[in-house]
Each structure stands twice: as structure tokens, then as C-alpha cells.
Specification:
single chain; about 475 residues; alpha/beta; Amidase signature (AS) enzymes; 2 domains; 11-stranded mixed beta sheet; 15 helices; 11 strands
Length: about 475
């Protein structure tokens, strides 16, 4: 029997070890591949694993390091990406049978930036079909499972990313987020997931769900690791029309500092009234707020629009946008798409143009209102996604567009991070979200890091 004592170092720890010649990229990559071989047969986090390619990249990183050519903290670091990111010469399926022959010629911009930084790509991670199909057992790959409890949902649609980081298969991953698809699996798998400001990270070469709402972002074990990954993938890209031409700050600059005097707005009505949570979430958030007070933050209540006000325009915007990408193909070749995806995408051509325009206008008003509220605070805090449900129950659900506590910050495009904030009595992760002003990811990371360092949750790992 193998013991689960071979977990990986954090990204920051591994970067220091590699830089100090105490660890090679090849050694680290082999450890990742070994863990995947032994444990992923139950978790199903990978769709495509590329061990030979990864070991070649690791050997190259080691040679460059010996030649004095270290490219930065990600040099030699093994990572993986949600299987919607184009990877040159490596299958990119979007979790759909319809794309089993899709071998891109070029890398997505975010992947290219990571590779240029010396990172080592391990493979492609599980996703709900085209980020929209939910848990569907009719697909060519079995549904991924939660590493904290195999009978529980790991969240989606960046499913494999959450599982792989939590299970210590890779040191970092990239996901995408339309309404919570980075933050929900991060919450349910007990890791860090950051949806940066809309436009901060290029989506060029990524299979989209919604042009208006999609974000790319990092998923890691710690906040410090998240900042390092975000540093590399951020920045303007002319190939993405939504990319923001804004300066990229040093995201790690304020990590380790205290948060005394920082103004924190508490959006308690989200988990207390709008989407009433159970006692575990209430107790968990009470402990979060007490810890932030102990750290010197100035906490005050903040009132945003009700959750339902964000959910309605999100559905009206997202549904026709994803239908425009895949709807006609799914109608003409239904055998290539899962039944959940087909059913969920079907209403996309029934939404009137006038309703779409009004939803976009409503979205603009919600952005203005959130900006007005945030002018009084440095960050907002609210609950993250609620603890994982039984996987069988989630698989049985046909409805997709239910109200989610993550949706408001996708609709407005404000940066939002999900971090672990404790555990339920039966060992499932709890989570919180921290939200910042547009392009002020630094403040979000500062508060998240301070909370993380003041709590014991990063010492808790799933027993595989």
C-alpha cells in the first residue's frame, strides 16, 4: 500500500528549491506523474496526459538552469490546463466527443506565456462538456470526483483543475470562469481559485462559452502560488478583442503585509437572505469575519443587488452566446454531443435580440452599482460556493441556470478569489470569496494571503 505522504511542495517552495539546485524539474515532474498514475484512476482529473512531452520540457528546463538561463519562478514548474485551452500538437476536446479530432497548431496565449516562462505542461484537465454540460455520464470520460470524498461533486466546469491541484497532481492549473467555473471547483476542492478582472488574462486560443462573460484564471494550493501564476499569464493581447491594455502590477508585492485598517465590506445578505445557507456556512463565515477583525480589518456591512438580479441577465446573455458557437452543430449532429449539453443549449436561439440588448444594459447598470458600493471599501467579502453535494444528485440535475453565489462577480467582471475557510463536520471544504475593484487584484491577494497565513487550513490535505 502506498501512503499519501508524497505530496508536492507548493509552487513557491518548488521554485525556491529549483533555483537553489536542491530539486530538478525532472525530479518534480516525475513525482507529479507518479501521483497521477497511482491516484487519478479514481479521481479522473485528466482527459489527456502527456508524460513524454512533460519529461522533455522538464529536461530542457534543467539544461537551461545549468546554463544560467532561469526565466523566473515558474521555470521547471509542472502545471496543467482545463481542456479548453489550445495546446499545439496536443488534443483539445472541450470535454466533448465532437472535438475528439481537434489537434491545435498553436498554443493559447496563456499557455504560450507559461511555456515561455519555463513551466512544464503535464496535460489537459477534465471539464464539463464545452463548460456547459454539467455532470454527464454519457461522455467518453467518467466524471471527475472530489478528492475529499469520492461520492461528492468536485464542482465545475473547471472540474479537473480543482481536483488535480487538491490531489497534488500538479503545482498549478488554469481554469475558465463564466459564472463561477473557477471559484466553484476551487471551493469544493478546498483550493485557491482566482477569477481576475475581465480582460486581465487573454482568452485567445480558448474554447469560449460566453464572449461577454468568460474569464481565464489561476487555480493553486496557496494564495502566493496564485499570484505567481497570475503574474505570468496577465497582460494585453491584441488577439483577444476583450483584452485590457492595462499595466500589470507586481501581484506578490503586498503578500506578507498586514491588513490593519483595510476597509472590508461584508455582503452577508448573499448567504443569509438571497441564497440561505446551512448552519455550517453561517458558522464558517462568522469565524471568517472574526478572524479578519483580529487581523485589524475595518468590517462594515455592504449591500449589493439581490443575487437574482445578477442571475437573470447572465442567463439571457450567456445562452444565445454559447448557442452561436455550438448550437447549429449540436442540432445537425446531435450524436456528437451529450444530452445535457444539447438540452441546455437548445433555448439559445429563442431569446429575442431586444431582450439580449436589455440584459446587456442591465449588466451595465449592475457594474455601475457595484462600483459605487465598492468606492467605500478596499475589498468585499462573502461566502464562496456551498459545500459539495452528492455527485449522484448533481448528475441527476438537468437545470443549469440556478442562482449561484459566484455569479455577481462574473456578470460585473470584478476580480474575485475563492479560498478555503475551514471544513464541515464531515470534512468537506468551506470557502469564502474576496472581491476587489476592477484591476485591483493586488488588494484581493493581500487580504486573501493575510487570512490564509493566519489560519491552519493549508495544512489540511485530502487523503487519497
Amino acid at each position: 500500500m502506498r501512503s499519501d505522504d508524497d505530496r508536492l511542495p507548493t509552487l513557491a517552495e518548488a521554485a525556491a528549491q529549483i533555483a537553489g539546485r536542491r530539486l530538478t524539474s525532472t525530479e518534480l515532474t516525475k513525482r507529479c506523474l507518479d501521483r497521477i498514475e497511482h491516484y487519478d484512476g479514481k479521481l479522473h482529473s485528466f482527459i489527456t496526459l502527456a508524460p513524454e512531452r512533460a519529461l522533455e520540457a522538464a529536461a530542457r528546463a534543467d539544461r537551461e538552469l545549468r546554463d544560467g538561463k532561469r526565466t523566473g519562478p515558474l521555470h521547471g514548474i509542472p502545471y496543467a490546463v482545463k481542456d479548453v485551452y489550445d495546446t499545439a500538437g496536443l488534443l483539445t476536446t472541450g470535454g466533448s466527443r465532437a472535438f475528439l479530432g481537434n489537434i491545435p497548431l498553436r498554443d493559447a496565449t496563456a499557455v504560450a506565456r507559461l511555456n515561455a516562462a519555463g513551466a512544464v505542461l503535464l496535460g489537459k484537465l477534465a471539464t464539463h462538456e464545452l463548460t456547459y454540460g454539467g455532470v454527464d455520464k454519457t461522455l467518453p470520460w467518467p466524471p471527475a470526483r472530489n478528492p475529499w470524498a469520492l461520492d461528492r461533486d468536485p464542482g465545475g466546469s473547471s472540474t479537473g483543475a480543482g481536483v488535480a491541484v487538491a490531489a497534488s497532481f500538479c503545482l498549478a492549473a488554469l481554469g475558465t470562469d463564466t459564472g463561477g467555473s473557477i471559484r466553484v471547483p476551487a471551493a469544493l476542492s478546498g483550493i485557491v481559485g482566482f477569477k481576475p478582472t475581465y480582460g486581465r488574462v487573454s482568452r485567445h486560443g480558448v474554447m469560449l462559452n460566453s464572449f461577454t462573460l468568460d474569464h481565464c484564471g489561476p487555480m493553486t494550493w496557496t494564495v502566493a502560488d496564485c499570484a505567481l501564476l497570475l503574474q505570468v499569464v496577465s497582460g494585453y493581447d491584441a488577439n483577444d478583442p476583450a483584452s485590457a491594455d492595462r499595466p500589470v502590477p507586481e501581484f506578490s508585492a503586498t503578500l506578507g503585509r498586514d491588513i490593519k485598517g483595510m476597509r472590508v465590506g461584508v455582503v452577508s445578505h448573499f448567504w443569509q437572505r438571497d441564497l440561505p445557507a446551512d448552519a455550517a456556512v453561517h458558522d464558517g463565515m462568522a469565524a471568517v469575519l472574526e478572524k479578519l477583525r483580529e487581523l485589524g480589518a475595518d468590517l462594515r456591512e455592504a449591500e449589493l443587488r439581490p443575487l437574482a438580479d445578477y442571475a437573470e441577465p447572465k442567463v439571457i446573455i450567456q445562452t444565445p452566446e454559447i448557442f452561436s458557437l455550438y448550437g447549429e452543430d449540436a442540432r445537425d449532429r446531435p450524436e456528437l454531443f451529450g444530452p445535457k449539453f444539447r438540452n441546455r443549449i437548445a433555448p439559445g436561439d429563442q431569446i429575442k435580440a431586444v431582450d439580449y440588448v436589455r440584459a446587456q444594459q442591465r449588466r451595465s447598470e449592475l457594474i455601475r452599482h457595484m462600483g459605487k458600493v465598492m468606492s467605500k471599501f478596499d475589498v468585499l467579502v462573502t461566502s464562496g460556493a456551498y459545500p459539495a453535494e452528492k455527485l449522484v444528485d448533481v448528475a441527476a440535475q438537468s437545470r443549469l441556470n440556478k442562482t449561484e453565489i459566484t455569479v455577481p462577480f462574473s456578470v460585473t467582471g470584478f476580480p474575485a478569489i475563492s479560498i478555503c475557510s475551514g471544513f464541515t463536520a464531515n470534512g468537506l471544504p468551506l470557502s469564502m470569496q474576496i472581491i476587489g475593484r476592477p484591476f485591483d487584484e493586488v488588494a484581493v491577494l493581500r487580504v486573501a494571503d493575510a487570512y490564509e497565513r493566519a489560519t491552519p487550513w493549508r495544512s489540511h490535505h485530502p487523503r487519497l
